[in-house]
Amino acid sequence: MSIKSIKKKDRAGELIQKNKRIFKCPVCCGKMFMNDFGSLTCNSKHSFDLSRKGYLNLLTAGNTPVYSKELFEARHLVCESGFYDPLIVELSKIINEYKKLRNNEEISILDAGCGEGSHINGILKKVTENQNKTYVGVDISKDSINIAARNNADIIWCVADLARLPFQNKSFDVALNILSPANYSEFNRILNDKGIIIKVVPGSNYLKELREIIYTDKDVSDYSNNKVINYFEQKLDVEEIQNINYKFHVSNEFLPHFIRMTPLTWEKSTERLNDIYEKNISSITVDLTLIIGTKKR
Ligand SMILES: C[S@@+](CC[C@H](N)C(=O)[O-])C[C@H]1O[C@@H](n2cnc3c(N)ncnc32)[C@H](O)[C@@H]1O
């Protein structure tokens, strides 16, 4: 093991030990703590090793990955290019305001379905007064968490199912759910009574330049996120809905990363994908809806 990975693992172990109160044993629901061998353990001796990269795998059953490692690597490059920066700025602003409302008390933030981790990582860099904050990123894909843990040792990274979150009741103040599936009963359970949830969903023009080429047979502006918003409203009180809409300049050399980062292009013929290059797309639209909610009162 290299010195760098020992340091990373130690740093992650310290962070997890400091925040052990948030964890719940995925097997027996008991309280957890870091043992002398660097594993997260409960009193019934269910034990979960910290990987060399510094993340925990808290899945109790196997799962077949839906997204490939290649997709997450491409998504990472796209995020690093600044494609989602306006979204990160907005999310950081909302969290900063929320923290002020809570008189700068200690808060914990969960990104459920965090993918390769760039969003919560970007928020950590942008949110002011980073003391008194715990950041946790969870995704069911080990490949995505591997990339996430490579890039930030100040965030607790867990491979886990967001439908069976390995956290105690009311252990988070902010739950983020960005372009990922939701499980509102779990989100309600882990959120404290004053907590907020921010769900980010695509708007009708999201990636429209790519979709127009891929789906020649349908009107791409037909998509509406009303159903998702209505379902959210049934489960939580909606405080605010915001839209973010902008165009991001892309060069032809960078286009392959956009094609690889989205499931939209899966199972599409090479011919259709070649069309994307030939159309000389110079910009791609980001159209997102942020739904901010609280527990039902
Ligand atoms: C479209 S990606 C979005 C990832 C990231 N939030 C982003 O915006 O780049 C959807 C993510 O949800 C994750 N996911 C799907 N089902 C999940 C589950 N049951 N528990 C945790 N993560 C899940 C996938 O592995 C994937 O990383």
Automatic annotation (TrEMBL):
Annotated CDD domains: AdoMet_MTases
Domain 23S rRNA (guanine(745)-N(1))-methyltransferase N-terminal: 23-59
Keywords recorded for this protein, A-Z: Metal-binding, Methyltransferase, S-adenosyl-L-methionine, Transferase, Zinc
Signal peptide: none
A GO molecular-function annotation: methyltransferase activity
SUPFAM superfamilies, alphabetized: S-adenosyl-L-methionine-dependent methyltransferases
Domain Methyltransferase: from-to ranges: 109-179
A Gene Ontology BP annotation from the UniProt entry: methylation
Record-listed S-adenosyl-L-methionine binding positions: Y84, E116, G117, Y206
Superkingdom classification of source: Bacteria
Binding site for Zn(2+): C25, C28, C42, H46
Name listed for the protein in its UniProt record: Methyltransferase domain-containing protein
